[in-house]
Each structure stands twice: as C-alpha cells, then as structure tokens.
C-alpha cells in the first residue's frame, strides 16, 4: 500500500484543528524505506481533526484512511482486563498494517500467522518465534520448511496427512489439534473448510503418538463474525473432552487456543464483547479450573477486535446521477469501492454505512453509493437515505479496519487508498 500522511507543505503551513499538527513518526516506528509504513506522517489529535486536516489540503480528492493507534491500545487494555487468563495472538490476516503489528508487539501480544509472508513480516519486526502460532491447518511444504528454519514451532493441524507432513518437514513442531466448533451463527463459517470432528480427535492423537509428533494442545474457531456467545462456551467444553482423550493416551496437553470470532467495537448488530468475555471466562474457569490446570496456557486469535474501530475511511464524491421518478433519488460515485477497501462487503459480509464528514441539516433522499470501477458489482450501498450531495463532498465510513486494506486491489487502474495515523493514547510515544 502507498502510505502517505498529510503532505509536508500542509504540515508546515497551517495545522487544521486545535490539536492536529502534523508530526514525524517516532524513530522506533520508522524504517529506511520511503514507501514503507514507517515513512508516513501522523497527526497528533483526534481522528476527526485528522480527517478535516486532510480534506482541507488544496486539491484534496483521493480517498484515505485515518487510523487511530490509540484505539488499538484501548482495545488491548480492555482485553487484558476482561480476559486476564487469555493471551491474544493477533490474526495478522485481518489487517497486516506495519504500525499495528509494531504496536501490538510492544504491548505484549502474540501473532497468528497463516502463511510464509505473514511469518516473514512478524519475525522481521523482531517478534520472537515463541510468540507466533502458525495457525493454518493445511500448510504448503515450503512455508512449513520456512517455519522450521526460523524456529516457529507452534502450529495447527486437523488431519492425518498434515501430521505426516509435519513429521517429515518440521519434526520439532509443537502441534495443536484444531477441532470443529459450532459456527452455525457466524457470518463466515470456517468449519466448512477446517476443523476435525470431535469424534475423530482420539484417532488423530493416536496417530500423532505413533508418528512421534508432539501434540501440545487444542484449538477451535467459532467462525468469523460469530453471533453467539454460547458458541464459545460450547467449544471450550468440546476442547476439554479432547484434553481428556489425550490424558487417556498419556499425553499432557499444555495449550488451549480459543481462536477468533471476537467482535470489533461499535459493530452494528454484533455481540457485546464484555458479555462474550464473561461467557468465555466462565467456561474456561469451569472446564479448565486454574487449580487443576495451572499448566495450561490459554491463547486466542482476535483480529477485527483490535482494528475494526481504529480505522475510518474517507471517500470523495467524484460524480453523481439524478434518478427521475415520483420522488427524487440519487446515485453517487466515489473513489474507493468493492474492488478496493470495500472488498469487505464481498469477503467479510459487511454492510458499511456512510456519514457526511461535514453534517448538515437537509432533507434526505433515496440514495445509492457506487465505487469507481466500470463494473456494476461495484456497489457500496444499494439503498439508503442521504442529503443531496454535490461533487467534491466527502463521505466517511467508520469501523473499516478489518478485512479491508489487506485484500484491496488496483482493478481498473485505480490506486489504493492512502493512510494517515493519529494517536489518542500516546501509543507511539
């Protein structure tokens, strides 16, 4: 991604807002690459001030994100308060932004990586291999060899063929059996692709013993965008049964990985994290009481939880079309879309809704919002209510930090959206 902040000319002339002066990133968050995330600028102040400062530049038109790293820090603090037994391993695939990874590493998070590329990024930031889980049950051989060469030992599996591959290519691995959880309430049912049925677990454990693969724990995933608190409690109970099966074979498991599916702050129609955490906390304490299971380490793989609410996306209205009918309606065309940052509509089942950057009291009209490409699939909002907008107006979409930047493309020759950072919690200082 081409990461630019607010340009130097604007930074040196007129800071917008009471606290939005533009600063260089602290040295420990920079690197030598001019095009890398560390070369971006950030605005000290609120996300709102940064949005206003960016659009106030002469000729401003390009879509851009504002990322509040302070929000990531607040989410981390909430996690440690509500789930003190559970160490978060950030799911890098959700948002591999360099500064997000750097910040979470400094806060003490581990990392869930699913490919050689993600392993390279995280290890390249100086994260110790012991703080990484290679959480992909079906790994390419070359990626597995890379993990072995770099000392990444913790990894998941859910089938016998993977155990044979691990034995051959990474005999020092510490394997974690991923079991199938009830993900019927999730927006994205990962159980359609991964997870061993609970009744298949004993046979897989016996095979691991026969092959000499060191199985150290159990993992599950209740699905991305899980809509059921009870699914977490049920999955912990299933994991406990696998622990019991392992004990019957003489295996002393030491790791419980409760996976992902945790909601981001402010998600419409989603679970409340505090309520979910209470259910999960109680389930862990019931099935893995600290007195009897002090040797069991508990981790999780949250992604959107940390980053969804930290990123807002501003888009510019580049064209409009009035639709004639009994009542006026409008089609608006903006400079990011489904092939770019709004790929979350297709891949993550999201329904982003805009707000005006500069609200005004005006009548509302039936409106649709479309991306910039020549493809009719590129629809951001098919029906909604907005004031009559003019070309050059700005719309803002909040909660855009999860599964957006990571899968954006340059289809039709359009650029990826830029990124400006703010820090409302002193996370970088």
From TrEMBL:
Known cofactor(s): pyridoxal 5'-phosphate
Active-site residue list: 374 (proton donor)
Signal peptide per UniProt: none
Reactions that this protein is recorded to catalyse: L-ornithine + H(+) = putrescine + CO2
Pathway(s) where this gene product acts: Amine and polyamine biosynthesis; putrescine biosynthesis via L-ornithine pathway; putrescine from L-ornithine: step 1/1
Residue list for modification N6-(pyridoxal phosphate)lysine: 93
Alphabetized PROSITE patterns for the sequence: ODR_DC_2_1, ODR_DC_2_2
Alphabetical list of SUPFAM superfamilies matching this protein: Alanine racemase C-terminal domain-like, PLP-binding barrel
EC number(s) reported in the record: 4.1.1.17
Any one GO BP annotation for this protein: putrescine biosynthetic process from arginine, via ornithine
Gene Ontology annotations for the cellular component aspect, listed alphabetically: cytoplasm
Sample GO molecular function, one term: ornithine decarboxylase activity
Orn/DAP/Arg decarboxylase 2 N-terminal domain: residues covered: 69-308
Keywords: Lyase, Pyridoxal phosphate
Pfam family, one: Orn_Arg_deC_N
Similarity-based family: Belongs to the Orn/Lys/Arg decarboxylase class-II family.
Record text on subunit structure and interactions: Homodimer. Only the dimer is catalytically active, as the active sites are constructed of residues from both monomers.
Name of the protein in question: ornithine decarboxylase
Species of provenance: Coemansia thaxteri
């Amino acid at each position: 991604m081409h990461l630019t902040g607010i340009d130097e000319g604007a930074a040196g002339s007129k800071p917008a807002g009471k606290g939005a002066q533009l600063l260089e990133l602290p040295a420990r968050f920079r690197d030598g690459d001019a095009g890398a995330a560390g070369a971006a600028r950030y605005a000290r102040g609120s996300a709102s001030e940064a949005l206003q400062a960016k659009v106030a530049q002469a000729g401003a038109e390009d879509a851009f994100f504002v990322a509040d790293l302070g929000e990531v820090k607040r989410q981390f603090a909430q996690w440690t308060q509500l789930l003190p037994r559970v160490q978060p391993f950030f799911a890098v695939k959700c948002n591999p932004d360099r500064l997000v990874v750097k910040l979470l590493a400094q806060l003490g998070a581990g990392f869930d990586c699913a490919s050689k590329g993600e392993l390279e990024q995280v290890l390249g930031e100086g994260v110790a291999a012991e703080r990484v889980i290679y959480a992909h049950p079906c790994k390419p051989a070359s990626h597995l060899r890379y993990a072995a060469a770099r000392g990444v030992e913790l990894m998941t599996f859910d089938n016998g063929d993977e155990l044979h591959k691990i034995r051959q290519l990474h005999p020092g691995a510490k394997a974690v059996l991923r079991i199938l959880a009830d993900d019927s309430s999730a927006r994205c049912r990962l159980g359609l692709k991964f997870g061993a049925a609970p009744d298949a677990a004993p046979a897989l454990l016996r095979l691991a013993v026969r092959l000499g693969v060191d199985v150290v724990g159990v993992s599950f995933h209740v699905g991305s965008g899980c809509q059921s608190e009870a699914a977490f409690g049920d999955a912990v109970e299933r994991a406990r049964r696998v622990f019991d099966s392992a004990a019957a074979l003489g295996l002393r498991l030491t790791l419980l990985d409760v996976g992902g599916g945790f909601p981001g702050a402010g998600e419409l129609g989603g679970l409340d994290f505090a309520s979910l955490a209470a259910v999960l906390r109680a389930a862990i304490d019931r099935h893995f009481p600290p007195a009897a299971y002090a040797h069991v380490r508990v981790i999780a793989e949250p992604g959107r939880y940390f980053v969804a609410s930290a990123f807002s996306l501003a888009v510019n209205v580049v064209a409009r079309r009035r639709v004639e009918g009994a009542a006026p309606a409008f089609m608006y065309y903006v400079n990011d879309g489904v092939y770019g940052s709004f790929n979350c509509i297709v891949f993550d089942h999201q329904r982003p809704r805009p707000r005006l950057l500069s609200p005004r009291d005006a009548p509302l009209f039936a409106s649709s919002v479309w991306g910039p490409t020549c493809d009719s699939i590129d629809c951001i909002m098919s029906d909604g209510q907005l004031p009559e907008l003019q070309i050059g107006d700005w719309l803002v979409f909040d909660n855009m930090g999860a599964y957006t930047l990571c899968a954006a493309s340059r289809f039709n020759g359009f650029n990826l959206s830029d990124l400006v950072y703010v820090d409302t919690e002193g996370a970088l200082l």
